[in-house]
Amino acid sequence: MSATTYPFKENAYTVYSYALCPYAQRAIRAFNIAKVPYVVEEIDLRNKPDWYHLVNPQLKVPALRTPDGTILIESLVIAEFVADQFPEAELLSTDATERAQLRLFIELFGTRISPFIYKSLTSAEVEDQKKAEESLLAGLRAVNDELEIQWKRSSGKGGPFWYGDKFGFAEIALVSFVGLLDVVPRHYRGVTVPETEEYAAFNKWKTAFSQHPGFTDVKPEDATLIENYKKYVAETKH
Ligand SMILES: N[C@@H](CCC(=O)N[C@@H](CS)C(=O)NCC(=O)O)C(=O)O
């Protein structure tokens, strides 16, 4: 019989999450940084509970149930909801131009970083792995240049975070992907980010957030991440 109800905590925020999912981590980080209490309902993605379609018909994490029973899906929508619902946490600027600039930065990760993390893992031919690595590094140079531009703006305050000295929405949205690329493509394909001038701003940003509880509190163990991504890794054809 198919489920007719699903677990949630009454009068609370319930986050449906999977600890290793970089998207779900956005939702968790948003609540943590805003210091808003929530409960986690961990979804085993390899064996999804039969009630989960009642929460998210797309069967993806994260999803959020708010205290009034509203269900929200999509990690950036959830993170933005937290930012808007708790403005005192100042996760996200209210200025339209500053919001647009940050959206473009987040978009840069979606188009030029994340796809190539996966591509480098799923490509079997050395040639294709190399191409993915080059695209990934080109994407990181674009990220680096955007950070340099942002830090000269008044909202960037010279860095080292997107909003100066504050771990905010940019970090909530993006650090899980940097954490991922630092561990998984490095382990399986030997991809590393050079310590050169072209990547200096990126490396400065990474060093700053890597020590922040906003990052470390939600970071999976390297070995667990490596094991989890094994299933995507194509054996190299020589
Ligand atoms: N665009 C979605 C992507 C979420 C997503 O792809 N989550 C993955 C896990 S990292 C998922 O739930 N996949 C479903 C599955 O593995 O069956 C978001 O930003 O929330």
Automatic annotation (TrEMBL):
Residues 11-90 form the GST N-terminal domain. GO terms for cellular component: cytoplasm. Residues 95-232 form the GST C-terminal domain. Transmembrane segments: none annotated. Coiled coil: none annotated. InterPro entries: Glutathione-S-Trfase_C-like, Glutathione-S-Trfase_C_sf, Glutathione_S-Trfase, Glutathione_S-Trfase_N, GST_Omega/HSP26, Thioredoxin-like_sf. PANTHER family: GLUTATHIONE S-TRANSFERASE OMEGA, PTHR43968. This is Glutathione S-transferase. It comes from Coemansia pectinata.
